[in-house]
């Protein structure tokens, strides 16, 4: 289950949009994790990992950094990591597509609260167990594509390294 979603600008830690699961008892507990999420965003730098999962007591934070914006969620420990990152990618695509021109200029916290309904709608999709299989298939397909691209790059770099070594040996003899 996704308990908290926070979208914030990394440069200054400004929260742009957020949602919290609607449960009175959980809200008190989740509030402290919301503060941790904000603190986490404030500590991020351009060299921070673009994707990461962090243990926070009985919960997990998952975040995605893209173009100066951090998309972070808090889930229970049983929530699938692949599902979490698929959710974050879906939110990132929607958010950036809708607000990309305003992200760097906005100065008011939570300026994009109207994005809340899109977050809730997407949460329902990713919380539905029937969508789980489709989501996992889509994520697996994306992972295979990333691996293939990375493997091609590795082969090209190895070929270049071998060529330079061959040239070096020719010069030596």
From TrEMBL:
Q: Which residues form the V-SNARE coiled-coil homology domain?
A: 133-173
Q: Where is the Longin domain?
A: 6-119
Q: Which domain of life is it from?
A: Eukaryota
The UniProt record lists the keyword Hydrolase: no
Q: GO molecular function: any one? A: SNAP receptor activity
Where's it found, cell-wise? Endoplasmic reticulum membrane; Golgi apparatus, cis-Golgi network membrane; Melanosome
Any one Pfam family match given in the protein's UniProt record, by short name: Longin
Q: Name one GO biological process term.
A: endoplasmic reticulum to Golgi vesicle-mediated transport
Q: Which SUPFAM superfamilies match?
A: SNARE fusion complex, SNARE-like
Q: How does it sit in the membrane?
A: Single-pass type IV membrane protein
Q: Principal place where this protein is found? A: endoplasmic reticulum
Keywords linked to the UniProt accession: Coiled coil, Endoplasmic reticulum, Golgi apparatus, Membrane, Protein transport, Transmembrane, Transmembrane helix, Transport
UniProt cross-references to Gene3D superfamilies, sorted A to Z: 1.20.5.110, Longin domain
Identify one Gene Ontology CC term for this UniProt entry. Answer: Golgi apparatus
Do you know which InterPro entries this protein is assigned to? Longin-like_dom_sf, Longin_dom, Sec22, V_SNARE_CC
KW Protein transport (keyword) present: yes
Q: What does this protein do?
A: SNARE involved in targeting and fusion of ER-derived transport vesicles with the Golgi complex as well as Golgi-derived retrograde transport vesicles with the ER.
Instruction: Indicate the family of this protein.
Output: Belongs to the synaptobrevin family.
Q: What is this protein called?
A: Putative snare protein sec22
Protein source organism: Schistosoma mansoni
């Amino acid at each position: 289950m996704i308990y908290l979603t926070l979208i914030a600008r990394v440069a200054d830690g400004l929260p742009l949009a957020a949602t919290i699961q609607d449960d009175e008892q959980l809200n008190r507990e989740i509030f402290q994790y919301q503060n941790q999420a904000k603190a986490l965003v404030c500590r991020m730098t351009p060299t921070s990992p673009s994707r990461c999962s962090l243990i926070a007591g009985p919960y997990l934070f998952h975040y995605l950094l893209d173009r100066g914006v951090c998309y972070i969620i808090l889930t229970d420990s049983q929530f699938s990591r692949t599902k979490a990152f698929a959710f974050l990618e879906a939110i990132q695509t929607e958010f950036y597509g809708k607000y990309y021109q305003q992200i760097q200029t906005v100065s008011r916290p939570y300026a994009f609260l109207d994005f809340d309904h899109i977050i809730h709608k997407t949460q329902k999709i990713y919380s539905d167990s029937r969508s789980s299989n489709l989501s996992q298939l889509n994520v697996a397909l994306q992972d295979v594509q990333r691996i293939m691209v990375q493997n091609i790059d590795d082969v090209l770099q190895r070929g270049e390294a071998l060529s330079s070594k061959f040239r070096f040996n020719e010069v030596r003899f």
